[in-house]
Design goal:
This protein has six helices and three strands; from the N terminus they run ααβαββααα. By secondary structure, it is mostly helical. It is globular. It holds the Pfam family Zincin_1.
Length: 139
């Protein structure tokens, strides 16, 4: 396993744009254990600059730099077999807060993106924080 993602052609090594961050997220998804992959096929991955004020307020977060990712949907553990017609589950990665954390911590960016993504996908599975750490260790 490598923290070096496949980046889009032409990336110069500067702060990655949304496309480069998305490529890192796709590379991180490829490291997920095979048994999880069928269960995340419908999850939409998005990259936005920041969470909007409404999202921050709903989570009681004061500063947009404090939210690096968000899972929106109903965890698999809370679903019923007769559910249908809802919006697809979504994981949003917030580019600027991730870049700020990257600068502040010095952690490899690919590893940080992977960490945020796996944490948010863990919410999709209804995992506890300990479960998410175990999942991350498996990948």
């Amino acid at each position: 396993m490598s923290d070096k993602p496949t980046l889009p052609d032409g990336w110069t090594g500067g702060p990655p744009d949304a496309d480069a961050l998305f490529a890192m997220a796709e590379a991180a998804l490829e490291t997920m254990p095979a048994e999880f992959l069928p269960h995340i096929q419908g999850v939409v991955i998005a990259v936005e600059e920041f969470a909007d004020d409404e999202v921050l307020k709903s989570l009681d977060i004061e500063h947009p730099y404090d939210l690096t990712g968000l899972y929106e949907g109903r965890p698999l553990t809370e679903r019923s077999i007769d559910q249908s017609g809802g919006m697809p589950d979504r994981v949003t990665l917030y580019r600027v807060p991730i870049l700020v954390e990257w600068i502040e911590t010095g952690e490899p960016l690919g590893g940080l993106v992977r960490h945020v993504l796996i944490h948010e996908i863990g919410h999709h599975f209804g995992f506890s924080d300990d479960d998410m750490h175990a999942l991350e260790a498996m990948t």
